[in-house]
Structures are given as structure tokens and as C-alpha cells.
Write a structure and sequence with these properties.
- This protein is of the alpha/beta class.
- It has 28 helices and 26 strands.
- The protein has an 8-stranded mixed β-sheet with strand order 17-16-14-12-11-10-25-26.
- It is found in: Cell membrane.
């Protein structure tokens, strides 16, 4: 390629030299099936039939002219017939399955099913006495028999089980099991005919096939080997190697998503390329012929697919890899695009539900980007003096981003602007981490010490990936909100198309560069060099940590603040403190030991000096107390108990302990959730902005006790008890008479917080209300006009309702 060629040549040239004959056939199978899943089986039949007829007519004309498209038109005719026939009939069978009617009525049912995929964990943040973690699993299965409404239902369709994690997590593909529960309709665009909310443990368990049992033994062995690593790395390595995220820390999972790196933990074409490529390189070094090499690599590929499990992305990657190896064995190099087309066609015909699977679409589009765009873009960069390795390292993530961005934008309702940079930084270590992990998985059962050594070799790579993801997620503007759904995806696709057209024109490129440079000069200084957050005179901040509490109280010393509660999970409170520039925390007060108040404790310690952790007299729930005691002891941080009447002071800040008074007359070991809430530590903070009353989750009984003691509860700012629940007495609010009320609450929470009557009562006493679910981090500040509330990203202004 001419080094001085115009960038517009990249897009056009990327199609040259590629065999496109299978693309119409693959597109017919995919789009025809997707149309049927969205609109009805008859659409699939019409699309397939029309494609077959057109292919036959065009094929006759092409045969007369000896066109090279004859084979492609033949494939199109075959795929058209398969789409109009078997695929359409399978969609029709799913649409008319008898189990759909029972699901629509919400009937109770007993089903005997065969598991088709490994259970997928559904993680949740902690709340009240429930620990954060996996409480439910989703299990894909096919129906063997159903009894609903006391009669047998004729069905052999697909079903999803929403089951408790306990007892259901360890099921394997191919295993038969009986479950009971309540049916619910499945969402559209799937072959799934019903969802069963399972009650109780599984029964009548059958045995999984031997190869699935062997694969699970190897996966469990890898998890055990990774126990020698730090917690975050130990959870990440199995995810990188075989897509096993069961032990992945929620914070790491969130950071990988925000930084655009979550695809690294889903087994796909990249893993297959690494595994097969390593085998082929080894065999090439041993001077083994291409056909034998392809056969050995195919055996390794089959083993890896079984090891990773039959998820859609794994099957697509496996079929793609198998077709590519077949091309290698036949001596047809450079046939990646036909291999992709054949893989798409085979998978959609074999499993029509894949046509509507977002993961399948992302995988196919990313692979297409690597085949069509990345090589030419890398060549274009190399022609301008960029070293070959760096050129490929840049071209690959950019090509994948361009191809997948519209789908991601529409699916997630957001776009990660740092994903290109993070993936460029991550790329060099993914392959060695995967190779070391696979070797440890295979060797570990026979030679544990060697397996542990290999896992330790993967630790630096895993640590680097976590570091990249963490810093990427923290970058200003790392994630940009975007319209969700089809319109959002189309808007992103149109924007990318406009950009590709613009870079074709030299003058337009210059104009685009000027606009981007101007934007950087305007927005970077505003957002980074002179940020609007935090406000200069903040006294207290209610952090947006989801459905939980975390309030930061400033001292007169910059960077030093007291923290009351830590939210439901690691990460959000750490982000809030980082945004506020807090690196010294003389005291962390845990108002009580419910999960949504202690879950983020661990992340507060990272990169900060902490003087002590203080609690009230409560020691329930027991697991939470043990967790706090263990974490503080491990870090050598004193664990203190606060007492009523105690006063704590720092420059510019004082804390008076007003409660709990309720718990002194009841057992501190009692496990009842209401008793634990009423045992919350109640503090009155003296700040330059006025008095702040911090109430934890006190409910009616504890509020009544405070009122009965005749304590002066007046405060300018109230941290509303229990996330604004209905258990807040009007008399209590009248006694406080706050000017501003901070409601720490999670968006879309299932508890009905904050309650409308509580908000109405706050408004009645004249309080301006700020909610973290709608306003984000909210600061209490003072200015020339006195007390004010400033929402993150908003200009400073008076309190608002």
C-alpha cells in the first residue's frame, strides 16, 4: 500500500482480496431468522423462500457466464431453503408451544428438564441483613415433561429457570433435574417458551455426561489453584481463561464494564485464537505439517470448547475456529471472512435463537472488523512510520470498537470513550495470561505445584488488567450516556458512518481535527483542570452509592474527612472519596451492621490512611460483625465502640453521640432487622454549614425514644432515616425542623424508597430535599447567601425542593 495514500482508501481496500461469496448466504440466514423471531415465523419463511428463488434465478445466469459467484449463489439457495424450512418451523413450534399459555396464566408447575448451559449467577448488592453476592442463578434448559394446573402439558421447548443459588449453582450441561415453581412468560425475540421461578432445591437429579463432569473438575481445580493469588486476581484469572466469573469481585466486574474490557471475561474468538495459535506455533517449531497441525489444533479446540461450556459465544468461536482450521488443512490461507460467513450460517441454522443474541452479534461484528478493517488500518499506520507491532495493537481495538459501538450503545444505553485506550494497554498481556491459565488448568490435577507456579505467572498480567480497568473506569467522562434501544444503535451507526465519510475528504479531515482540538481545549480544562466538583466550601456530602448510606464530613484540613457508613459494595464510596480529594480518614463510623452500610468498607482503606473504625453496641448480624472485625484486624486499624454522650472533635468538625438509646434496653445480639435498624448510631455533627443530624436507619421506636429523652434534635441538615422509608414519624421531623434533607437511596430500588408520605412531611416542615438516586452526590455548602445544596455537576444555588 502506498504510505501516502489517503485514509479513505483504507475502507475501500479492506474489501479487496476478500472472498465475499458466502456473505449473502450468512446474511440471509441471520437476518431472516432475526425477522422471524421479532415478527413471526412466517416472515422467516418468506425471507428464506425469496432468497432461494432469487439465488436459483441468478445462479442460472451466472452459470451461463461462468461467473465465480456460482458457488456463492448455490450456498445462498441452500441457506434460503433451510431458513424457509427447518428454521421457520422451529420458530413456529416455539410460538405455538402449549407451555406458553400456562406461563401467561402464571400457573404453578412441576417440570423435568435437561440443563443446556452452566448456571449464570445473578449478583446483588447487600441490603439489610442480606450479604452482597450471588443469591440467584439463571439456568437454560430444555423441557422433558411438565405438569401444570394438575395436568400434563405437551412441550419440548426451551425454558429458563430462575433458581436460588444454593443447591442449583453446581448443575452441569446435560444433567436432568426436576424443579417446581411458578411459570411466567418469556421475553420476546427468543425461542424460550417460559420462565420458571423455582421454589426449593432440585430433585431427581440425573448424572451429567462424563466429559462435562471432567470439565467441571478442571474448572474447580483452576479455582483452587488461584487461591494462592490475591482475591481480585484469583477471581479474574478463571474468567480470562474459561469465562468462569463465579468468584469475580463485583467491583472488578463493574470496572471492566465501565472501561470497555468486559469482553475479556467472555470466552470468544480471542480465546480460541490464543489456544489454537499457541498449539500451531508449537507444532510449527517441531516442523509438523499443516494437516497434522490442523488436526491436533482441532482436538485442542474441541477440548477447550467443552472446558469453557456451551455458551453462545463459545460455540460461535468454536465453529469459527473449526472452519478456519479446515481452511488451513486444505491449504486455503487468508479465508477468514468465508470462515466467518460459514460459522454464522451453521450456528443460526443449528440454533435460531442465536440470531437475536447480543453477544453473538458483538462477536460476529468484532471478528468482521478484525478481518476487514484492522489489517488495512495497521498497514496504513505502518506506512506512516508507526512500528508494525504498535500499528497492529492500535488497529485491532479501534476496528473492534467501530464495528461493535452501535450495538453496545443501543444495548447498554452508554458508550465507553476509554475502551480503545484500555484495550490497547490490555492486549499485550491477555495472551500470556490465557496460555498460563490453560496450562495450569490441564497440568494442575496431575502436578499441583506446577499448576500453582503457572497461576502465579498469570498474576502480573491479571494485576495489570485490573489496574488498567480501574484507572479507565475512573477517567473523567469514561462512560457517556446514550439513547438506548434500536434508535440509539441506529444513531451511533449513523454518527460513525458520517465520521468515516468525513475522513475520506481532506478538507473535512482538517475541519474535524480543528473541531476536536477546540473541544479538547474547551472541555478538558473545564472538566479536569478546573472541575466544578467538589465545591470549594463543602461541609458534608451524601455520596451516591446506590441503595445504601455514605456521608462524608469535612474537617478544616484539606483532604481529611470523617466518613459515616460505606454503602452496599466496594467501589462507589471509594469513587466518591476520590472525587472529593479525601486521602485521610481519621474515623469511619458504621451506624449499624446492615450490608448496605458496611459493604464498601474494604475499598475505603485503599490508598488512604484510616485512623479508626467506630461502631455502636450492636453485633448483629453476626456475619457482618465478623467481617468488620476481620477486615480491621487484618489492616491493624483500631475498632472502637461509641457511647452515648461521647464527643469527638477535629478542626472544623465535631461529633456528638446521641444514640442508640433503643438498643440499651434490648439484646444487642438480637437478629431482627427492625431491632438492628433501631440500634443505629445517631450523631449530631457541628460543621461550618450548621448542624447535621445523622440518623442511620432508625425507625419509629428509636425515634420515639429520642423524643422521649428530651434531646435537642434541631439541625439545619437531616440525613433522612432509612432511605426515606415510611417509618419516619412527623413528630420526629418537626423536632428536627431541617432546612435541607439528604435522602440516600438507590435508583429503581424494590423497597419503595423514598416513601411519598415521608417526602411530603419533609416538604411540610420546609425542608429542601436532595435525593442521591436523582441528584447523585450532593454537597452541603455555605456561601454569601448562607446554606446551599449543590448537586454534582450543577452550578451552585440555593436549596431546592
Amino acid at each position: 500500500m502506498n504510505p501516502s495514500a489517503d485514509p479513505s482508501e483504507v475502507d475501500t481496500a479492506s474489501w479487496r482480496g476478500q472472498d465475499l461469496r458466502l456473505i449473502p448466504a450468512a446474511a440471509t440466514a441471520w437476518l431472516g431468522t432475526l425477522s422471524g423471531l421479532l415478527g413471526g415465523w412466517w416472515i422467516t419463511m418468506l425471507c428464506g423462500g425469496a432468497a432461494a428463488v432469487l439465488a436459483i434465478i441468478a445462479g442460472v445466469r451466472a452459470h451461463r457466464t461462468a461467473s465465480r459467484w456460482v458457488a456463492g449463489l448455490g450456498a445462498l439457495a441452500v441457506l434460503g431453503v433451510l431458513t424457509a424450512g427447518p428454521v421457520a418451523l422451529r420458530i413456529r413450534a416455539a410460538e405455538q408451544d402449549d407451555l406458553r399459555a400456562a406461563a401467561a396464566r402464571g400457573s404453578d408447575a412441576i417440570v423435568r428438564v435437561v440443563v443446556t448451559e452452566r448456571p449464570r449467577p445473578v449478583r446483588g448488592a447487600g441490603y439489610a441483613d442480606r450479604r452482597a453476592g450471588t443469591r440467584l442463578v439463571v439456568i437454560a434448559a430444555t423441557v422433558d415433561a411438565v405438569v401444570a394446573e394438575e395436568r400434563a402439558v405437551d412441550s419440548d421447548g426451551r425454558i429458563l429457570l430462575l433458581a436460588p443459588a444454593e443447591g442449583w449453582t453446581d448443575l452441569l450441561p446435560g444433567q436432568q433435574v426436576t424443579a417446581s415453581g411458578r411459570l411466567a412468560p418469556a421475553k420476546g425475540a427468543e425461542l424460550t417458551v417460559a420462565v420458571l421461578s423455582v421454589r426449593g432445591p432440585p430433585s431427581a437429579l440425573g448424572q451429567a455426561p462424563w466429559w462435562q463432569r471432567a470439565a467441571e473438575t478442571l474448572r474447580a481445580g483452576l479455582r483452587e489453584l488461584c487461591a494462592v493469588l490475591p482475591e481480585e486476581q484469583a477471581g479474574l484469572v478463571p474468567g480470562l481463561v474459561v469465562g468462569d466469573t463465579s468468584a469475580l469481585a463485583p467491583r472488578v466486574e463493574r470496572e471492566f464494564t465501565d472501561s470497555g474490557m468486559s469482553h475479556l471475561m467472555a470466552v470468544s474468538g480471542g480465546n480460541v485464537a490464543i489456544v489454537c495459535g499457541s498449539i500451531l506455533l508449537l507444532l510449527r517449531a517441531l516442523r509438523i505439517g499443516p494437516r497434522t497441525s490442523a488436526a491436533v489444533a482441532a482436538a485442542g479446540l474441541a477440548g477447550f470448547v467443552v472446558l469453557a461450556g456451551p455458551a453462545p459465544s463459545v460455540l460461535r468461536a468454536g465453529v469459527m475456529g473449526a472452519v478456519g482450521l479446515l481452511a488451513l488443512a486444505l491449504g486455503r490461507r487468508g479465508s477468514a471472512l468465508p470462515a466467518l460467513g460459514l460459522a454464522v450460517a451453521l450456528l443460526v441454522v443449528a440454533d435460531p435463537a442465536m440470531a437475536a443474541d447480543f453477544g453473538f452479534a458483538l462477536s460476529v461484528l468484532a471478528t468482521a472488523g478484525l478481518v476487514l478493517l484492522a489489517p488495512r488500518w495497521a498497514e496504513w499506520l505502518a506506512g506512516r512510520g508507526v512500528p508494525s507491532g504498535y500499528a497492529q495493537g492500535l488497529a485491532v481495538p479501534v476496528a473492534a470498537f467501530v464495528m461493535t459501538a452501535p450495538v453496545i450503545a443501543g444495548m447498554a444505553g452508554s458508550v465507553s470513550l476509554v475502551s480503545i485506550v484500555t484495550n490497547v494497554l490490555a492486549a499485550p498481556v491477555v495472551a500470556p495470561a490465557t496460555v498460563f491459565g490453560v496450562l495450569a488448568t490441564v497440568i494442575g490435577p496431575w502436578w499441583p505445584s506446577a499448576g500453582r507456579s503457572l497461576v502465579r505467572l498469570a498474576e502480573p498480567e491479571a494485576s495489570w488488567l485490573i489496574t488498567v480497568a480501574r484507572h479507565g473506569a475512573r477517567a473523567p467522562g469514561a462512560v457517556v450516556e446514550w439513547p438506548g434501544g434500536w434508535w440509539g444503535g441506529l444513531l451511533a451507526a449513523c454518527l460513525l458512518a458520517v465520521l468515516l465519510v468525513v475522513i475520506r475528504l481532506r478538507h473535512a479531515r482538517i475541519l474535524l481535527a480543528i473541531v476536536l482540538a477546540g473541544g479538547l481545549l474547551v472541555f478538558v480544562p473545564v472538566r479536569v483542570l478546573a472541575p466544578t466538583w467538589p465545591p470549594a466550601s463543602w461541609s458534608a456530602v451524601a455520596c451516591d452509592v446506590g441503595q445504601g448510606d455514605a456521608v462524608v464530613l469535612a474537617t478544616a484540613e484539606p483532604g481529611r474527612a470523617v466518613l459515616v457508613d460505606t454503602g452496599p459494595e466496594p467501589g462507589p464510596v471509594d469513587d466518591c472519596l476520590r472525587r472529593l480529594g479525601v486521602d485521610r480518614v481519621p474515623l469511619i463510623v458504621l451506624s449499624h451492621l446492615h450490608a448496605d452500610h458496611i459493604g464498601g468498607l474494604e475499598s475505603v482503606f485503599e490508598g488512604r490512611s484510616v485512623g479508626a473504625v467506630a461502631v455502636g453496641p450492636g453485633r448483629a448480624p453476626a456475619w457482618a460483625w465478623q467481617q468488620v472485625a476481620k477486615e480491621t484486624a487484618r489492616r491493624g486499624i483500631p475498632l472502637l465502640e461509641l457511647s452515648i454522650g461521647q464527643r469527638l472533635e477535629w478542626p472544623g468538625l465535631s461529633l456528638d453521640v446521641l444514640g442508640p438509646r433503643y438498643v440499651t434496653r434490648r439484646s444487642v445480639l438480637e437478629q431482627d432487622g427492625t431491632v438492628i435498624n433501631n440500634g443505629s448510631v445517631v450523631l449530631r455533627a457541628g460543621t461550618p454549614a450548621g448542624r447535621v443530624l445523622l440518623t442511620g436507619d432508625v425507625e419509629l421506636a428509636a425515634q420515639a425514644d429520642l423524643l422521649a429523652e428530651g434531646i435537642d434534635l434541631r439541625a439545619e441538615i437531616l440525613k433522612v432515616p432509612h432511605h426515606g422509608s415510611r417509618y419516619t414519624a412527623p413528630d420526629f421531623l418537626n423536632a428536627v425542623t431541617p432546612r435541607a434533607a439528604l435522602v440516600s437511596v438507590g435508583a429503581g430500588n424494590p423497597y419503595g424508597h423514598p416513601n411519598k408520605s415521608t417526602l411530603d412531611n419533609l416538604a411540610a416542615v420546609g425542608a429542601s430535599i436532595a435525593r442521591t438516586d436523582t441528584d447523585g452526590d450532593t454537597a452541603v455548602v455555605t456561601d454569601a447567601r448562607g446554606l446551599a445544596l449543590q448537586r454534582r455537576g450543577e452550578p451552585r444555588g440555593p436549596p431546592r425542593s
